[in-house]
Design brief:
- The structure holds 2 protein chains of 2 kinds.
- By secondary structure, chain A is of the alpha/beta class.
- Helix content of chain A is 42%, strand content 12%.
- In chain A, α4 packs across α14, α13 crosses α14 and α14 crosses α15.
- Chain B is mainly α.
- Chain B is built from 10 helices and 1 strand; from the N terminus they run ααααααααβαα.
- Chain B is globular, with a radius of gyration of 23 Å.
- Classes of the chains: A alpha/beta, B mainly alpha.
Chain lengths: 414, 261
């Protein structure tokens, strides 16, 4: 019977296809729909118009020589780690306010996502610069990605572990026997470091639960403590309605453990560049200096103009709304300012602590982030120091007088 | 199967596989590809040999989710196909709905199921596998029950056989090969579905978590080692479904077209 033979052939083929698909899914490519609703691309048109005007005004009194030289702006692209949000406010502000243009740059901001690994995008030559957390980027570097940290924008870690106040989890020692949420994908090292510091075995002393990038699991009581960023997920719980009161939750409803305060904070958002090109390509090097300088101007602008900066991000189409972006801008400012050594400076002590934790903390699989110290040239302060001399919009690069504002969150971040 | 036949069937694909791995290794070494981009097969093998316990326990988690879903989905699918065959109206009502449901992407349904259960529960993953398997079994078995030779039916009617007898003697035997075809498709699909459902949160214990997580951490050799585990698991499910078919059909003595197995 031929039909039967055909069925057999077809099922074999399906089996083979399935096996292929198995590998493909295993590689983690199939996630597009899992990520939060895609946001609109940044509204470049409007910002271009605005920045044209700005740059005309500014170039007159600030950088005549530069404006004269700048006939065709140099193109540069920046890979973000996540979707458009105020975590990247400084870069959006630098586009919007024409800081990049003043440095004769035409910068394209490339949105990130759950599965996008910025530092490998950079190492593959797809973008000119990438934002990445230091431990993750160092892991890629150990795996052969030749990249270098040229500016440490966030000076401290913004990772928290948030639990309901009645759960009584006030320090990592209280994690024992609890369901501890974490994000995985390289965002969990501080959780493991805190466990390790308390002598807890991540495999047996706690139950680790993969957390979606939201706080639903905590609010519904599925987990006892959730990983959260000060500037994002923590705000999300404060934007949720407490069913008992009918009002928004307040900070009093929660216990918050800051990994920075606990002493296991690891360096986060930094600008990474291609190490080969930085060493051998003079054009790329000067591109890097200009890019870092203008980006710093963006962050200085956001420090001094929190509301305007949040509005700029809002215009770029983030997922969450106005009060959330204002909160986020304010919280991110706290991670950057004050920068005692000057914005972007890579503090060797914080660097060494990050590396030490990355080398010494075993995860669920018993592996550490790094197996050896990073090789020579994993970071440089040369670019930052040179960039400081190119800053055109003021000289307060440390923000020693910085004070955060008070932000009132609305339901759902609106 | 004779030794010569075995050689003829096994050697060419084995040779191809070996050549493929050698070419892969040579490409990585020759072009000095970095591990973050593509690890060499030798590095993957080292990672595989270094982590047998982890890979086994992860495969066990994913495998048991796939198995539970596969069994539940098959039972439900078979039961539903009997119902659909018996009540034609039901068939006309349910079939379009089934097709529509089946078109909803896994990712959407996983999210729905995960909202319904605690995030540490394995139930959403198993439900997902059950659902996928259910449709494969349902459509195939329903077809097998219905597409009976007209001559067979006429013969049974001429014997004045009751509907139950027709079901037992004609329809069910006809549907059996369809069931095993469905199982052969459903078994690897169940494994894949189990991986994919692990991807969207829940306990961090299965292959579907460790593979993307290790890729994200630039531990690509380890990630590929888990992929080997995933391939072995999928293959095991597929082989078992084939073996099951071979045993059952042999016992019934109804392998058509001679000894093709």
């Amino acid at each position: 019977m031929n039909t039967r033979r055909n069925t057999r052939t077809i099922t074999r083929a399906v089996g083979a296809l399935a096996a292929l698909a198995l590998v493909a899914t295993a590689c983690g490519g199939d996630d597009d729909d899992a990520t939060p609703a895609a946001t609109d691309p940044p509204a470049e048109d409007t910002s271009d118009d605005m920045s044209d005007d700005m740059s005309d005004d500014m170039s007159d009194d600030m950088s005549d020589d530069m404006a004269m030289e700048c006939e065709t702006p140099r193109e540069a692209s920046l890979q973000l780690q996540w979707f458009t949000q105020a975590q990247f406010a400084g870069y959006y502000a630098a586009v919007d306010q024409g800081f990049y243009e003043n440095h004769c740059l035409d910068v394209t901001i490339v949105e990130g996502g759950l599965d996008i690994v910025p530092q490998t995008q950079l190492a593959n030559g797809d973008v000119d610069f990438a934002l990445a957390w230091v431990p993750k980027a160092l892991a890629s570097r150990e795996a052969g990605a030749n990249i270098v940290n040229i500016a440490q924008i966030f000076q401290r870690s913004g990772t928290l572990q948030v639990s309901f106040a009645d759960a009584g989890i006030t320090s990592p020692a209280d994690f024992a026997g609890k369901k501890i949420g974490n994000w995985g994908f390289g965002n969990e090292y501080e959780v493991f470091a805190a466990l390790g510091a308390e002598g807890l075995d991540p495999a047996s002393d706690v139950e680790l639960v993969g957390q979606n990038f939201d706080m639903v699991a905590l609010l519904e009581g599925d987990i006892d403590a959730a990983e959260a960023m000060t500037y994002n997920e923590y705000a999300q719980v404060l934007e949720a309605i407490n069913p008992d009161t009918g009002e928004l939750y307040t900070p009093d409803d929660f216990n918050v453990i800051s990994y920075e305060d606990v002493g296991v904070g690891m360096l986060q958002d930094a600008i990474w560049a291609d190490a080969d090109k930085l060493a051998n390509d003079e054009d790329y090097r000067s591109l890097a200096v200009s890019f870092v300088a203008a980006s710093m101007e963006g962050w200085m602008y956001c420090r001094d103009n929190v509301q305007e900066c949040a509005d700029i991000v809002l215009a770029a189409g983030p997922t969450l709304g106005a009060s959330h972006q204002l909160w986020q801008t304010n919280e991110v400012n706290k991670l950057i300012w004050p920068s005692e050594n000057g914005i972007g400076y890579i503090d060797p002590a914080a660097w060494d602590r990050t590396v030490e934790i990355a080398q010494g903390t075993p995860n669920l699989e018993g592996a550490t982030v790094l197996t050896a110290p990073p090789t020579e040239g994993a970071y440089t302060n040369e670019i930052v120091e040179e960039a400081w001399t190119h800053i055109q919009t003021g000289d307060d690069t440390t923000g020693s007088g910085f004070t955060a504002i008070e932000v009132t969150l609305n339901e759902g971040g609106n | 199967m004779s030794v010569r036949r075995l050689l003829v069937t096994v050697v060419p694909p084995a040779m191809f596989g070996v050549l493929f791995v050698v070419a892969w290794e040579a490409t990585v070494k020759g072009f000095d590809l970095k591990p973050y981009f593509l690890p060499a097969p030798s590095a993957i093998w080292d990672a595989f040999v270094d982590n047998p316990g982890l890979i086994r326990s992860a495969a066990f988690v994913s495998g048991s989710n796939a198995l539970v879903g596969l069994v539940a989905g098959t039972l439900l699918g078979v039961a539903a196909s009997f119902l659909l065959m018996r009540f034609n109206l039901l068939n006309e009502l349910v079939s379009p709905l089934a097709v529509a449901l089946n078109a909803i992407p896994i990712v959407v349904l996983v999210a729905v199921f995960q909202n319904m259960y605690a995030s540490t529960s394995e139930i959403p993953r198993r439900l997902m596998v059950t659902l996928i398997v259910f449709f494969i079994v349902l459509t195939n078995v329903a077809k097998g029950l219905r597409q009976v030779h007209a001559t067979h039916l006429e013969l049974m009617r001429s014997y004045a056989a009751s509907p139950t007898m027709i079901l037992l003697k004609t329809r069910i035997p006809n549907a059996l090969p369809y069931l095993f075809t469905a199982l052969k498709i459903a078994a690897p699909t169940a494994v894949i579905t189990a991986f994919v459902s692990e991807y969207f949160g829940g306990r961090q214990n299965g292959l579907g978590y460790f593979i993307p997580s290790n890729f994200a951490n630039s531990k690509t050799a380890v990630a590929w080692a888990y992929v080997i585990g995933a391939c072995l698991l999928g293959l095991a499910f597929y082989l078992v479904s084939i073996a099951l078919e071979a045993i059952t059909t042999h016992r019934r003595g109804s392998v058509p077209g001679g000894a093709t197995a």
